[in-house]
Specification:
By secondary structure, the chain is an alpha/beta fold. It is built from 13 helices and 12 strands. The relative contact order is 0.12. Bound molecules: iron/sulfur cluster.
Length: about 350
């Protein structure tokens, strides 16, 4: 097991079973997350005997960079090779003073949304907490400072790997860990309704983002197959309960696809849901996706849709479709890598 799979409480319990005092766990967290050291040899505040015991019991994994691509707008995508040869990607998105990191939570995804490359390549496995936190540590080092925002919105459905995502959030949030404020983290979901209750139970002020993308079940069934299991009204109802449980901020993500979900009727439906959830809306103009007939809306279409929402008192932001020249839509880089590996394997 990787030592970074453990929250501070879990590590304290492990340390006690090793016959040591619990505060040793705090010292280990300090080396791992404050001093950001990935070798037991350097843990000079611990005895040699304890360092050897730790090394015999826990590994300290480091993500291996397999590829990297930067787009003209500054968006940078990192492709990591994991210990078992699988690949994940992490995206760094600068926007003014904000620097957002988009973290992956699974290798691939089970939910096969029509507009998403991760879904098309199927599901491989959940990421361990250490592999999620590892992305943060790597990006902090690459950037030379701490990013401002962390969104669990890369490959995978975070609520489908909630136990590990929750541990990663706790390690990131712990003052003895990375000390990242919960309000700077956002968990995204395609609408895995049964898992909302577990998110409600989290005693941290993490933001919630819902990938909505359609305001009728007919269209959402087509774009996001998860909607056939958990239809729109169930998703909105679960989000309402989440809001009542703690009042944390909800954002609705809406990819605008020309001629499909960009009519003013769609905008009316979206405004009604946003008002019900007191949610902000992020509009993203769809980028071309290999094998899909989706069309990118014009700037005029996007502006009209945004204005319609704002006239209905919905706080709306147009997010640029970042880094489309480096395959920045989620899962595209890892997907290409996988396709290439398959071709090489077949050849
Ligand atoms: S959008 Fe999210 S839930 Fe849908 S396939 Fe992609 S990663 Fe999975």
């Amino acid at each position: 097991m990787d030592i970074r799979d453990l929250t501070l409480d879990e590590l304290r319990a492990e340390i006690v079973t090793m016959g040591e005092r619990p505060f040793r766990a705090d010292q280990i967290f300090d080396w791992l997350y404050k001093k950001k050291v990935a070798s037991y040899d350097a843990f000079s505040s611990l005895s040699k005997a304890l360092r050897e015991k730790l090394a015999g019991r826990f590994s300290i994994g480091v993500l291996e960079l397999a590829d990297k691509g930067a787009a003209a707008d500054g968006t940078t995508k990192f492709l990591f090779r994991l210990g078992d040869g699988q690949h994940i990607e992490t995206v760094l998105i600068p926007a003014g003073r904000r620097v957002t990191v988009c973290l992956s939570t699974q290798v691939g995804c089970k939910f096969a949304c029509a507009f998403c490359a991760s879904g098309r390549h199927g599901f491989e496995r959940d990421l361990a907490p250490s592999e999620i936190v590892g992305q943060v540590l790597f990006l902090e080092q690459a950037l030379g400072r701490e990013p401002t925002n962390f969104v669990f919105m890369g490959m995978g459905e975070p609520l489908d790997n909630w136990a590990n995502v929750e541990k990663a959030i706790r390690i990131m949030n712990a003052s003895e860990g990375l000390a990242i404020a919960a309000r700077r983290m956002t968990v995204s979901t395609a609408g895995l309704v049964p898992a909302f209750a577990r998110l409600e139970a989290l005693d941290l002020q993490v933001n919630l983002s819902i990938s909505l993308h359609a305001v009728t079940d007919r269209l959402r069934d087509r774009l996001m197959p998860i909607n056939r299991r958990f239809p729109l009204e169930e998703v909105v109802g679960a989000a309402e309960r989440y809001l009542r449980s703690g009042g944390r901020m909800i954002t609705l993500e809406y990819i605008l696809i020309r001629g499909l979900n960009d009519s003013l009727d769609d905008a009316d439906g979206l405004a009604a849901i946003a008002r019900r959830l007191r949610a902000k809306v992020n509009l993203i103009a769809c980028s071309p996706i290999e094998g899909q007939p989706f069309e990118t809306p014009t700037d005029v279409d996007v502006a009209r849709f945004k204005r319609w929402l704002e006239e209905r008192k919905v706080n709306t932001v147009v997010r640029l479709s970042k880094g489309s020249d480096i395959a920045a839509a989620c899962g595209q880089l890892a997907g290409r890598f996988k396709d290439q590996a398959k071709r090489e394997g077949a050849g």
